Amino acid sequence: MPKNNPLVNIHHGTCTILVAIGLSEFICNTAKVYVGRLRPNFYAMCGFDKETLDCTADDHMQAESRMSFPSGHSSVSFTGLVCVTLFLLGRVGLNRNVGTIRSSARGKMLLLISCMPLLLAFYCATSRLADNWHHPSDIIAGTALGTICGFISYHLYFP
User: Is residue 74 domain-resident?
Assistant: First the structure.
């Protein structure tokens, strides 16, 4: 089959997303358990009692309140949407004719539209900060992890 066959693109795109998200989730969840950083809303989540100085929430909630670093939502959103962005940029032909794309108005518009999924990922990541579920460093680490996993996975299937 030729490389630009729709079936090949669907297969490679599916493999890219699955490998990227699997890699990102594995690293993220391993780091969450290993680091055990407290969430910004730790005391509210664990049901802290000021008199006994102890958490009163169930074990699941106490464990969840200690899994702030890195942000899983940031990681997954950037992983998937970096893959989508790179795929769209590849279909636009950014790797073949950069000068042509930048010089024409149509090329600039296609380039801008191809990068739009990153805005959705950015919104998802920043919403975790606004909801008081993560520290800024958690979000930055999740964003970096997701971006790296997306790049690695994309280049495995679309060299």
Answer: yes
